Amino acid sequence: xxxxxxxxxxxxxxxxxxxxxxxxxxxxxxFGSSVTVSDSMDLSNxxxxxxxxxxxxxxxxxxxxxxxxxxxxxxxxYNATLKLGxxxxxxxxATRSSGWSGTITQDESDPSIVHVSLTNESxxxxxxxxVATIRLNVNESASSTETCQIDLEVADAPTNPENPTxxxxxxxxxxxxxxxVTKEEYEExxxxxxxxxxxSFLPYAxxxxxxxxxxxxxxxxxxxxxxxx
Length: 229
Fold this sequence. Notes:
The protein is α+β, with helices and mostly antiparallel strands. It is built from three helices and twelve strands.
């Protein structure tokens, strides 16, 4: 009976300890789209599931929509590299969707590449979310039926070790990766940081709590057995 109680206590400890790890895991996929992102959108218009997406030549209204499909948990960062497959299409400007801050810039050496590094302080949860709108310039020599195929890949958060982090130097604002940002972005990223201890402390607290419960069950079982003797 004693061994059975110990086994049950150990199983309970494992369940309590590992449950938050599974529940708090975040999973999602970035994608590019030729149409506005919505929950009811046709996913064949996106780069999801290995689809190839071509952007039509709409003159000054030629745009690419960047999205995020969250399958579980909460995602707060969107770091990606956008590749334009037609040299007649080049980056013009970008608009970040509500709640997102950060930078969207053209590569200095390769105009066909756009770097995206965005943060959402509140985070986004399960579903489809539009993250940004990329506007393109189209060369006047391009035909009206010409298209631009796009590729989107996950990128590591950009860093610049030569720049200060979360500091204001000579009137320029730098985020936590040493990337120059606007004043508003600096204040959002550096002056209102998320509590780094919240996520890491919870698993340890739960594990300790599980151990206490297991010991309590063991002592209760042992005491109960002695009483009946």
